Amino acid sequence: MWEQLNRWDRELFVFLNSLGIDDHDSFWIFVTQIEHWTPLYLLFFSLFFVVFKWQKALIAVGLTLLTFAVTLAATNITKNIVGRLRPNNTPELADLIRILQTPDNFSFFSGHSAVSFAVTTFVVLALRQRFKWVYIFYIWPLLFILSRIFVGVHYPGDILVGALVGTLFANLIWRFLGKHLLFENG
Predict the structure, then answer these.
(1) Is 146 helix (H, G, I), strand (E, B) or coil?
(2) Which regions in the chain score pLDDT beneath 70?
(3) Which of 115, 114, 121 has its CA nearest to residue 135?
(4) Which parts of the sequence belong to the Phosphatidic acid phosphatase type 2/haloperoxidase domain (predicted)?
(5) Is the pTM of this model over 0.70?
(6) Domain count across the chain
């Protein structure tokens, strides 16, 4: 069963990766680099200071960073336990795919996917009562995860599991810490 799922994952990756267009490569390389999203992070944190008083805004920032750190730690532990090679490091795929980046660590599950969904989900949970439009922030992780396929470094399964794990961690931290620290007692 796992081999069948892996085969489907590889086939879907090869198909999706082949949809990349040379003229758009620089866009996907730009999108996939975390530092280019710094203005969005600053917007997230600024909105906390619009919605909450200073102390609670700092708590919201801290909980967002906690969500990021926990998700990243779980990702790195899982990658080292599972040890799945990235598509760009898989010899039988070398002639079939477009490779725009060449990281050499493991693939399962996607840290970009997990962390971007974790942070976005936490921010949405914290701000949704004040800003109904906050769900638009999910454009960020969707672009981010697509970039990982187009640059040749993640299978769709890596991305899907990463998104689920990130969303789960954000919801757990929100449920057990966030909503109590930010919305109870004034």
Answers:
(1) helix
(2) 185-186
(3) 121
(4) 61-174
(5) yes
(6) 1
pLDDT per position as a tens digit, 165-186: 999 999 999 999 999 898 876 4
* Structural domain contains residue 27: no
Rounded alpha-carbon distances, angstroms, from residue 20 to 17, 70, 110: 6, 32, 19
Residue 179: CB partners within 8 Å, gap ≥ 6?
Answer: 125
What pLDDT does residue 70 have? 98
Q: Is residue 30 situated within a structural domain?
A: no
- Contact of 30 with 147, CB cutoff 8 Å: no
Domain span including residue 71: 2-17+39-183
Nearest to 140 by CA among 46, 31, 63, 61: 31
Q: Residue 110 gets which letter from DSSP?
A: P
Q: Does 24 fall in a domain?
A: no
**% of the chain at pLDDT higher than 70:** 99
